From TrEMBL:
UniProt GO BP: recombinational repair
RecA family profile domain: residues covered: 68-217
Gene name linked to the record: radA
Chain residues that bind ATP: 97-104
GO cellular component, one term: cytosol
Domain of life: Bacteria
Protein name, UniProt field: DNA repair protein RadA
Region named Lon-protease-like: 353-442
RadA KNRFG motif, short sequence motif: residues: 254-258
Function of the protein: Plays a role in repairing double-strand DNA breaks, probably involving stabilizing or processing branched DNA or blocked replication forks.
Length: 442
């Protein structure tokens, strides 16, 4: 009788191997290989079941109720903006961010505000004791009688707390610290994360209680654990910020109940995290007189237009390879802009050091800031300041042309609202024409 062959398959990407290994050779995930059935073995087949007549039978889409689910506000307007108006009953929300960025502080504040509105809230933490959470709550003013704390790392115990408290909102910090005794492996492993997330999502869907799950991130900024975690939840939010600055941004990467292009702005303070409803003045300098090497632009963060000042400094280089130092902008993008300027404007940049930075620690990643960066560099080279009430938005092509960017009308309206009487966009056609108009040689 022929011997049947067995093997192992990755539950994430489907990669197969004849021997078990700890790390998948396809997606590079750890602990995702499972033994598959031998070739020729008979597999159990799922047969059709009788659909109960209880409203679950298939029906035409035109007969399905179009009633919208009401959002429950958290009391933090910037958080509600990103969530699409608040928390939806029965929703599973994944909240990720780097260590120390302020995830727990923000969610504890949101939990206290929801509790102050009359609802019971359960805050389950596997990383801190209840005493530590109480100290942070006292510092941030997040104390309320209907906010319940639990410090647990066992999934079954957390589910027991949910049945006992019967909350209107659940916050779990974090999914990588919980473990189930029914699943092999330690806390934070792919199998444990999958089981913990599935159990919490099942509670949210069956009971209608919204669940906010905190997730750790890897060194490249993605959510740690199996990719399936992001597919299971309804909303994925990422909290980001630079440790050297107090500014924090909350972005929605996935949202089944609202837009995914909204951005919330927060600021770290001594009393916790404060929301910034109008961050228009955070990224602009306060100089009274115009300074050469500076130019304002209007960046789009989701649906929000933010004015940002770009600063450039050029100096004669004393080395064969001039320095290109950037802060808040992409270094490869700066190299391309400098090449375009030298080729299409005739400016000599091969023998000067160039330093480009943004004000306030904000990071510009969109191409709409190309024109402002180029004009800031040209202003520094010619040592002539741009007008104080001037802002520029546009993308530079390798041919030296200025291209239009998304949201041009919104950017122009925001610039006008902030007092920028002169606004330059793709109407200038080329970067050389922009230089000759603003920075003519004396």
């Amino acid at each position: 009788m022929a011997k049947t062959k067995s093997g192992y398959v990755c539950s994430e990407c489907g990669w197969q191997t004849s021997k078990w290994v700890g790390r998948c050779g396809g997606c590079q995930q750890w602990g995702t290989l499972h033994e598959k059935a031998p070739e020729g073995a008979k597999l159990a087949r799922t047969v059709a079941a009788t659909v109960p007549v209880s409203g679950r039978e298939a029906q035409p889409i035109t007969r399905v109720s179009g009633e919208r689910v009401a959002h429950m506000p958290t009391g933090i307007s910037e958080l509600d903006r990103v969530l699409g108006g608040g928390v939806v009953p029965g929703a599973a929300i994944l909240f990720s961010g780097e260590p120390g960025v302020g995830k727990s502080t923000l969610l504890l504040d949101a939990a206290a505000r929801v509790a102050a509105s009359g609802a019971r809230v359960l805050y389950a933490s596997g990383e801190e004791s209840t005493g530590q959470i109480r100290l942070r709550a006292e510092r941030t003013g997040a104390l309320h009688d209907t906010l319940f704390l639990a410090s647990e790392t066992d999934l079954a115990t957390v589910l027991g707390h949910i049945e006992q408290v019967r909350p209107g909102l659940i916050v779990v910090d974090s999914v990588q610290t919980l473990a189930s005794a029914q699943v092999e492996g330690g806390a934070g492993g792919p199998a444990q994360v999958r089981e913990v997330a599935a159990a919490l999502i099942r509670v949210a869907k069956e009971s209608g209680i919204p669940v906010i799950i905190v997730g750790h991130v890897t060194k490249d900024g993605t959510v740690a654990g199996p990719r399936l975690l992001e597919h299971l939840v309804d909303v994925v939010c990422h909290f980001e910020g630079d440790r050297q600055t107090a500014l924090r941004f909350l972005r929605s990467l996935k949202n089944r109940y609202g837009p995914t292009d909204e951005t919330g702005c927060f600021q770290m303070a001594s009393g916790g995290i404060e929301e910034v409803s109008d961050p228009s003045g955070l990224f602009l300098s306060r100089t009274e007189e115009p300074v050469s090497g500076t130019c304002a632009t209007v960046s789009l963060e989701g649906r929000r237009a933010l004015p940002v000042e770009v600063q450039a400094l050029t100096a004669t280089s004393s080395t064969p390879n001039p320095r290109r130092v950037t802060s808040g902008v992409d270094s490869s993008r700066i190299a391309m802009i400098l090449a375009v300027l030298e080729r299409h404007t005739g400016e000599k940049l091969h023998d000067v050091d160039v330093y480009v930075s943004t004000v306030g620690g904000v990071r510009l990643t969109e191409p709409g800031a190309d024109l402002a960066i180029a004009l800031a560099v040209l202003s520094s080279i010619r040592d002539r300041p741009l007008p104080r009430d001037f802002a520029a938005v546009g993308e530079l092509s390798l041919a030296g042309e200025v291209r239009a960017v998304v949201g041009g009308d919104q950017r122009a309206a925001e610039a006008k609202r902030l007092g920028y009487a002169q606004f330059m966009d793709a109407a200038v056609k080329t970067v050389a024409a922009a230089r000759d108009r603003l920075l003519p040689r004396s």
